[in-house]
Amino acid sequence: MSLTVEEAGRALADPSAYADDARLHAALALLRREAPVHWVEPDGYHPFWAITRHADVLEIERNHQIFLNAPRPQLLPSAVEDEIERQAEQGLGLRTLIHMDDPDHRVIRAVGADWFRPRAMRDLEPRIKELARRYVDRMAILGDTCDFVRQVSVHYPLYVILSLLGLPESDFERLLKLTQELFGGDDKDMRRGETPEEKFEVLMEFLGYFQELTAARRANPTDDLASAIANAKVDGKPLNDFDAASYYVIIATAGHDTTSATISGGLHALIEHPGQLARLHDDPALMPLAVEEMIRWVTPVKEFMRTANQDYKLGQVTIREGESVLLSYPSANRDEEVFDDPFRFDVGRDPNRHLAFGSGTHYCLGAALARIEIRVFFEELLPRLESIELAGTPENTATTFVGGLKRLPIRYSLRG
């Protein structure tokens, strides 16, 4: 595949590129090698600097006082960005942790931080194990074939999140559909519509659901994360409805979609690398390292954006005040300068300095939960797994933000 640097840069703003691993990684490798800080002016998007080397992504993440999340935390078509700006002027729209900078970010993050600390995770682990067992049992009930994504991996992490939030399982299908529409807005199989207005409808429906939840938990507090968010106070005042609803949205969406993508992508990697599957099966003590390698390999969050609030020299390039940068995590996580043989899937890789959870002040709030969910699922699956292979062609989601496999047809044999 022959690409120019300009074509490689534009691939970062092309959702279809993320559905084609070979195309994407060819573009990213070219940029790392020849133009690691590259100005991109893609059709339909506001321009940005593409940041593709691990060291540069890390440098920007650590300079959070210069490179701000606001006003452009993720890559969106210019028409959608303009619509969001119009809605924000009317006091509407999303304001999650990924949209915030300090001091707001620090204060709002603290609202839910205790629920993701080690002790809270230990308390939740029995429920996670119960759900992992349920979905491995489901694989057995389904027989010897299934679409692992649609029938297993999208369900298990969402039920974990519902448990954490204290939401009823009857709300599963609604939340799953909204999450897929929100993150799958560029994919023809998942999106609700193609216009900015239709995409905004999904967001407003999400916010409406969680505004009702906020009111219910304030009227009748319970012992769950949903109640903690609803009744949190900042400077002696409750969170406003949009900030509370936005908090729920980031927990309920990023908290399960990224984990689902990693579990399905991790299983795909094990199928494609049977030697690594056998190695992990024979040595379960490798599981923590294997989990990190699955996270690196899949990198479900494809990018975040930052905007410079002053001129900053990065390598040989000066990023001007007001210009945006795109932090390419799939590229950073395959950087030849950091990872030995980065295109080798290695369940014993150590060290593994991946940036899939970000770094610094914006490090993923739910990283510990994600690690437990992935570990527990494979600890439940592998001892029962006698054989596994592909039963069709896997398909990736078209996206520029969050995603992974949308189909993983498998054939398998399970004990018990």
UniProtKB/TrEMBL annotation:
The keyword tRNA-binding does not apply. Keywords: Heme, Iron, Metal-binding, Monooxygenase, Oxidoreductase. Pfam families: p450. SUPFAM superfamilies: Cytochrome P450. InterPro entries: Cyt_P450, Cyt_P450_B, Cyt_P450_CS, Cyt_P450_sf. Belongs to the cytochrome P450 family. This is Cytochrome P450. It comes from Actinomadura rugatobispora. The lineage of its organism: Bacteria, Bacillati, Actinomycetota, Actinomycetes, Streptosporangiales.
